[in-house]
Amino acid sequence: MAIADDWEASVPFGSYEAATRGVLVGVGQPIRTTTADDIQRVLDERYADLRLQLLVVELDLDAVTAAGIPVVRDEVTGSVGVDGPLPSGDPTIVVRVVPVQRIESRWVAPELDAR
């Protein structure tokens, strides 16, 4: 997930450096990732109170690794994070960007077709 304004501001610079809720990468916080099946849970738990437009940014983690950007896995939770700025304009890394809709005061995960 990304706040739309943060993501859109990153594209001209070519690098997205915000982790969860605006914490900058490199200050001890990787950019967290989630699976398509877990997007709704993340929206409910971490973003329910947020009113700024959100985006789902789909990444190819193999391409992230191939670009030399560290991908870290939390051994306890199994969650994966990207430990460095994302090349926001690289279509091999950023597969697609999908807006999240807010319906009846709740963010609703977009339907993502299998790729």
Structure notes:
The chain is α+β, with helices and mostly antiparallel strands and 115 residues long. The protein has a single domain (2-108), classed as Alpha-Beta Barrel (ADP-ribosylation fold), CATH 3.20.170. It contains three helices and eight strands; from the N terminus they run βαβαβαβββββ. The protein has helices spanning 4-13, 39-46, 61-66, and strands spanning 2-3, 31-32, 54-59, 71-73, 80-82, 94-99, 101-103, 106-108. β7 (101-103) and β8 (106-108) form a beta hairpin. The longest helix is centred in the N-terminal third of the chain and has 10 residues, at 4-13. The radius of gyration is 14 Å and the shape is globular.
Topology at a glance:
Blueprint: E1 2-3, H1 4-13, E2 31-32, H2 39-46, E3 54-59, H3 61-66, E4 71-73, E5 80-82, E6 94-99, E7 101-103, E8 106-108
Antiparallel strand pairs: 1-3, 2-5, 3-6, 4-5, 7-8
Summarize this entry quickly.
By secondary structure, the protein is an alpha+beta fold. 21% of the residues lie in helices and 24% in strands.
Largest sheet: 3 strands, antiparallel
- State mean pLDDT (0 to 100 scale): 87
Globally, the shape reads globular
Q: In the CATH hierarchy, what is the architecture at level 2?
A: Alpha-Beta Barrel
Q: Rg from C-alpha positions?
A: 14 Å
